[in-house]
Amino acid sequence: MPHAYHSTLLSSLAWLDHAFQPAGEPPPPESIMNRQRHTANVLLSSEALPVKSHEADGLIATDSRPVAVYTADCLPVLIADVRQKQVAAVHAGLNGALKGVLIQAIHRLCERGATPDSLYLAVGPAIGPCCYELGEDRIAAMRQENPHDLRPLLAYSMQQYRNPLAIRAQAIGTTQGVWFDLPLLAKRMAMRAGVPEAQIELSGICTYCMAEEQASYRRNGHFQHGYQQRYAWIRQR
Ligand SMILES: [Zn+2]
Q1: How many Å lie between the centroid of ligand 1 and the Cα of residue 216?
Q2: Between vectors from CA 69 to CA 68 and to CA 73, what angle results, nearest 5°?
Q3: Is 32 within 8 Å of 234 (Cβ atoms)?
Q4: pLDDT tens digit sequence for 61-108
Q5: pLDDT for 133-145, tens place per residue?
Q6: For the chain, which domains are there?
Q7: How many angstroms separate the alpha carbon of residue 159 from the centre of ligand 1?
Q8: Of 36, 50, 51, 227, which residue is least crowded by CB atoms under 10 Å?
Q9: Distance from residue 187's CA to the centre of ligand 1 (Å)
Q10: How many angstroms separate the alpha carbon of residue 173 from the centre of ligand 1?
Q11: Ligand 1 ion local residues (Cβ < 5 A)
């Protein structure tokens, strides 16, 4: 049975618990979740009940019940605010990230008394630049539309990065496109919002070539072996 991944940064904060769980393992029973739709909507957990009744992709906890997101290549981001002792969970796939869900989560935390330098972000396992190919038309559209002025933060390479930590074959390019680095985009977005670099941790785990077999939506698209959601959650103690 694969183990959950824990962020070193968040583990250093004694007032919270968190985990990035392997595929198929259910979240803690009291967890609050949204119906995720790649939106920029961020709710307080008190606004989000009953569980999965709202379409949103970010959740800020208002009590000690865990807030959770589910992913299968998209980026799970767990956030702690050490000033007000708030926690948040964000589902940021590429579309949600471009719509601004992470920006909105940081903004909403700051409305509630956080400051950018009081935030700690753990960016969990997601499809990495070693396996995430995007067509050139997609990149061109992103650059043209430039949502939230993100163009200077887009991170991609024409050459596929060979991942020395891969435990299975990396994705094979099919579109002569680019290799996109979604975790790095998230990091750059948080830094632009004022979060210190030392308070942002990337897991470095690619769901396609490094995590358990069921972890990747895209890999399932290539091999039809099935996939299961991975849950990431965080709670105040
Ligand atoms: Zn990979």
Answers
A1: 10
A2: 150
A3: no
A4: 999 999 999 999 899 999 999 999 999 999 999 999 999 999 999 999
A5: 999 999 999 999 9
A6: 8-126+189-236 (3.60.140.10)
A7: 13
A8: 50
A9: 18
A10: 12
A11: 128, 130-131, 206, 208-209
And the tokens for 190? 């948080």
Tokens of 44: 């307080």
Look at strands 16-20 and 156-157 and give their pairing: unpaired
211 CA distance to ligand 1 middle (Å): 9
Question: What angle, 0 to 180 degrees and rounded to 10, lies between the N-to-C axes of helices 182-192 and 101-111?
Answer: 30
Contacts 24+ apart (CB under 8 A), 113-117: 113/81, 113/83, 113/84, 113/86, 114/81, 114/83, 114/84, 114/86, 115/83, 115/194, 116/193, 116/194, 116/195, 116/196, 117/194, 117/195, 117/196, 117/199
